[in-house]
Amino acid sequence: MADGEDVAAGGRGIAAAMPAPASLRVAASKRPARTSSSALGVRGRLLLAAVALLLPPLLGGALLLGGAYTRERRVAERHLDETAHMLALAVDQQLGQSQAYLRALIASPALAQGDVAALEAQARAIDLPKGYWFRLAAASDGRVLMNTALPPGTPLSGGQLGPNLRAALETRRSRVGNLFNSTVTNQQAIALHEPVFRNGAPAYILSLVMPSTEFTQLLTDQQLRAGWIGAVVDRSGVIIARTRDPERYVGQKARPEFAEAYAKQTSGRMPGVSLEGMPTIVSFRRTPSQDLVVAIAAPRDELGREAWRGLLLALAGAVGLFALAMGLALRLARGITYPVEQLAARAAALGRGAPVPTETLGLAEADAVAQVLADASQRLARSSAEQEEKVRAAVAEAESANTALFQAHRMEAVGRLTGGIAHDFNNLLQAVSGCLDMLLRRAPDDRSRDLIRAGMQAVDRGAGLTRQLMAFARRQALRPEPLDVADLMRTMRQLLMHALRADIVLEMVLPQGLWPAMADSAQLELALLNVAVNARDAMPNGGVLRFVAENVHLAPDQTEDALKGQFVRLAVTDTGSGIDPAVLPHVFEPFFTTKEVGKGSGLGLSQVYGFARQSGGTVHLDSVPGVGTTVTLFLPRAATAPRRPVAPAEARPADRVETRTVLVVEDDATVSATVSASLKERGFTVMQASRADQALALLQDGDTIDILFSDIVMPGGMNGVELAKVARLLRPDLAVLLTTGYAENLPPLEGMRLLPKPYRMDQLLDALDALD
């Protein structure tokens, strides 16, 4: 048979060249004609099968990558918006500090008496930042009465009431002027104008002029991302400060489309082109208290750049895989007929999502491919589901972690900023308090004394604000002690009733066996009062305010702060309007308030937050709009029982004759001068030192010194606590009283008394008497 087959095969060429018999032609005509699709069908179907196999994962991957790109771009845009918001707050804080200088000078009796010369002397004595200067103008015609940028005695001329000065008088509010080129200092600057009224009528306009470079430096200190541009624009659309090429662009107008957006909106984001011609995305925010606009511009192609890179790499890989699959399909198509057609059918079924048959095809290679297709169908379904779930979980976890990290960094940054401002403001308040005390002792009549006492009350209110700022920043000097929380709450009931309205029902649940808490009683009372006042404002139509105290054991996973141990929980619940979920992340930030202007300082809940964290506990806030809000304080359990109250000390005799010598150690010259002068007026012998080494030298000279009164935070490498320890080694009988307006990293006092700044003279005298 083999030989016969060879002959037949070899004779095909001859038979093909000869005419076929008629019978054979008839038989051949009865065969079905071979269509062109049978020659191309196997290859085409293999190609279609390969496409059907690869298309679903390619499309799924494209969708996932597209979603990842969109999310990353949104994250970048949100970061741009948040950066603009934080810079606007920083600029507003800078203006607030400048406003403090103005209001401190406005409170001067010299201005009230119209004594411009005395006021100018006080203004020149203020240690302003470099390039700052005061100017006083008459409210009637804008005539310049004082200019500290000029040498004393320089004749003054000119002046008029420009639009910003008139606006400050009409609105009775401070106002930032537009950028101008100062002929006095030969530099570009802006001015913060504060109107001064006497008996309800406009009298003066006191201005603080600041170089525009201060705001450029403020933007530069924020360390924006490389390529980003920060700018501050005044209400006329002129650039005040800019991080890139400020010498070239400060003083120029912003692009018209930006200026128009700044004028119409308080915040926004828009595409545009920078002054250098670079396509950008611009996010801008108007400062809360003044009409300045802070804008951050990022290169447009930078947003989503990483997403684009990953998308292009993935597409390149997908194209490569697709080409490889097509080449393999073409290779397999050669010499395969029926089994390959069956494989194409099974691949098509896989593409449709139908079950792939597992029967053998009679060809080893085809059977192997058939098995691979069946396995691929199962793996593809499992892998697609697993990958989608992993990507979804990873994205959710990353977004949550980034949000928590950003919030923590923002709260810490705001805490440091507010703590530093409060520290400096405490020294200013202390100096003002000392000056007012001396003026009170010299006041010639009751009217003068009443005015001075009003100033003292203003100092007390300022001290209250700084204590709340210190509380948020966790830099206040707390006096923690074991507290009977139930007893404190019962004592506060009458105070709370006065703070609430008659249509609000006050309830207290104070169980027996409540543990003592370790906290500062005054700060706890203030915190509870702040929460009660917020609850009152949330219930304009009346309601119920409920205080519930209980003992709790906390595990690390029960609170966001991972607290562990025994705590006293104080939950304060109201039935008010609740808080919008969009506002909840900001309720503990200082100066944040949803109340109308003038009806809330925004420091109440920030004091609660700072007090709880500094006390070793925490605070949580839960709210349901339309149902109410619950503020929960967690305070650590005290290891000992509360102390019994001590009887108040007898009042200091007015005619007491002092013979003691006090060494005052204070690096702030103004505070040292005012405190020393007040002590001398009351009969004390006073010696002064500005640093610890000077104080030790006086102690070693052998002078009779009875009391060391020292600030804690001082230059020179030795703080007040360390000074007191060395002084007691030299003089074991020496009485020590310490003071501070800033309690960050406060060293152990080891039994020494502490008087927080700012203090009044009667408080200082009581503290000195308590040393006896």
From TrEMBL:
S-adenosyl-L-methionine is among the record's keywords: no
Residue span(s) of domain Histidine kinase: 420-639
Transmembrane stretches, start-end: 46-69, 310-330
Keyword list, A-Z: Membrane, Phosphoprotein, Transmembrane, Transmembrane helix
Domain of life where this protein originates: Bacteria
InterPro entries hit by this protein: CheY-like_superfamily (IPR011006), HATPase_C_sf (IPR036890), HATPase_dom (IPR003594), His_kinase_dom (IPR005467), HisK_dim/P_dom (IPR003661), HisK_dim/P_sf (IPR036097), Sig_transdc_His_kin-like_C (IPR004358), Sig_transdc_resp-reg_receiver (IPR001789)
Residue positions, PTM 4-aspartylphosphate: D711
Enzyme kind, highest EC tier: transferase
Matches recorded under PANTHER family: HISTIDINE KINASE (PTHR43065:SF49), SENSOR HISTIDINE KINASE (PTHR43065)
Protein name, as recorded: histidine kinase
Source organism: Nitrospirillum amazonense
Organism classification: Bacteria, Pseudomonadati, Pseudomonadota, Alphaproteobacteria, Rhodospirillales
